[in-house]
Amino acid sequence: MTQVYNFSAGPAVLPKEVLRQAADEMLDWHGSGMSVMEMSHRGPEFISIAKQAEADLRELLAVPANYKVLFMQGGGLGQNAITPLNLLGRKPHGAASGPATIDFVHTGSWSGKSIKEAKRYANVNVAASGEASRFTTVPPQETWTLSADATYLHLCTNETIDGVEIGYVPTVQGDTPLVVDMSSHILSRQIDVSKYGVIFAGAQKNIGPAGLTITIVRDDLLDHALPICPGVFNWRAVAEADSMLNTPPTYAIYIAGLVFAHLKKLGGVAEMERRNIEKARLLYAALDADDFYQNRVAPEYRSRMNVPFYLRDESLNEQFLAGAKARGLLQLKGHKSVGGMRASIYNAMPIEGVQALIDYLNEFAGR
Ligand code: PMP
Fold first, then answer.
1. Cys-Cys with 10: which of 126, 177, 204, 328 at CB 3.0–4.6 Å?
2. Is 181 annotated in the active site?
3. From ligand 1's centre to the CA of 55, what distance in Å?
């Protein structure tokens, strides 16, 4: 097989070692005579797989004991939709009667979608928005107009389409829980889980295959669901059932577990962060070398994971993509809503892949 590098935003590249191990174990997992896909989720084999995956994820992120780790379905959009249903029963101190308020920081496409979902159930206060800058920056925290009585503050800390990443933990009003969509940068940088109320992420970028969603919830936030929240999406109910309330995405959990074990072997999240800083530094430097390419995001908010860029002469887009493909540099086309190009350089993208892309960027620009 020729060497290819896959820059897809998700489903995305997975570590080769993990895919090889999965291939080796495909027909017979650890002498059980079964593929993981064929196992009952309630049998001892699969339960051991799920428990190990959870333990390894907890270790990688140093998840404190007063947080539940849930293996769910429905993706990032699913969690966006059910977060209000799970939290709006919470009555913050000093909240006026009437509909609750959720604070949002609107940093791009995905926070925009979560705002739309939340409007079905609550007042939405957009405390800050990058829309005026076409999501190329995030307004400074001092300018955010946070509510005193918000049920929670929602942020997407890495906007996959816009390539905007917030690298700090925002200050909240009082004890307002912070809810973050980390779908596209979980495990790519060190975080202090104790600073957050809820963290969620679709698996299909830095974790494993599509179909699995990870939700990390602080214990005191498990009991505020609205009565209309479906049981299968009720965090408390899912936690009580050890994420086996219904049939979980067993194969996706298995692969995620292999990825977690692989990350531990490489040195954990600290080592991933070190590598990701270096990969992003090299790629942005190549894009910034002259004006042949353009990344429009303010440098302090540039994502280490998703790097959108435009060719100065957009009539060359197809030629650029065809040349990239011929060199084994795949899935570089930007999201349809913003056009241009996008290179997603998740944990599993080796530095050699970034270097190959940089070589091609230089060659195509005639440098
Ligand atoms: N949030 C973010 C930050 C995403 O990148 C995505 C998917 N690209 C989603 C939510 C939606 O995820 P899903 O397709 O798993 O619902």
1. 204
2. yes
3. 24
